[in-house]
Prior knowledge:
Chain A is an all-beta fold. Chain A has strands spanning about 5, 10-15, 20-25, 30-40, 40-50, 55, 65-70, 75-80, 90-95, 100-105, 105-110. Chain A is built from no helices and 11 strands. In chain A, strands 2, 4, 5, 6, 9, 10 and 11 form a 7-stranded mixed beta sheet that branches. Chain A has a 4-stranded antiparallel beta sheet with strand order 1-3-8-7, with no helix packed on it. In chain B, about 35% of the residues are buried. Chains A and B meet through strand 4, strand 5, strand 9 and strand 10 of A and strand 4, strand 5 and strand 10 of B.
Amino acid sequence: DAGVIQSPRHEVTEMGQEVTLRCKPISGHDYLFWYRQTMMRGLELLIYFNNNVPIDDSGMPEDRFSAKMPNASFSTLKIQPSEPRDSAVYFCASMFSGYGYTFGSGTRLTVV
Amino acid sequence: SQQGEEDPQALSIQEGENATMNCSYKTSINNLQWYRQNSGRGLVHLILIRSNEREKHSGRLRVTLDTSKKSSSLLITASRAADTASYFCATDASNKLVFGAGTILRVKS
Lengths: 112, 109
């Protein structure tokens, strides 16, 4: 298994632009999570899905952020419009119930 | 918000020594997990200990859990330079993990 695959690895965009981050979870995992990591705030859970259904999006900072999981093998996190304070590393992770998470390598987002 | 709080924030030891990191949390949990993150990389799952377990081993790793004190410890024995990384505890109360701020471990060769 190739693990959790995220794309792109790096993204540099201008303030106001739309950014889409992508994630392919491990086949058979029934949970998918989006985290954001910054030096100031550490690892923050943004949203998670169970069997493709969003369960808890209380960590999504504001309406500029949205996430979808149209099927068991794909999820997106979209920021529109992006702002400099969104600069962070965004991680996707998947899990099979009751076991540890498998994280992707992350997307380093820089908004200038 | 972070539930787990690691202690110490940073630890520097010589290769071959043991490293102990502690984690405290606030609410009831289903399990507690430890992860490692190398600089610029994703997190790697190390070990999971369930709320009804008190101790667990995996290779050079030993994890303890004291639910009465709401605390856990991670012991790395016979450390190696390759163990240099950040270590995070994470608590699972409802199938979502809440991470602490992490301990930065540096193993000098």
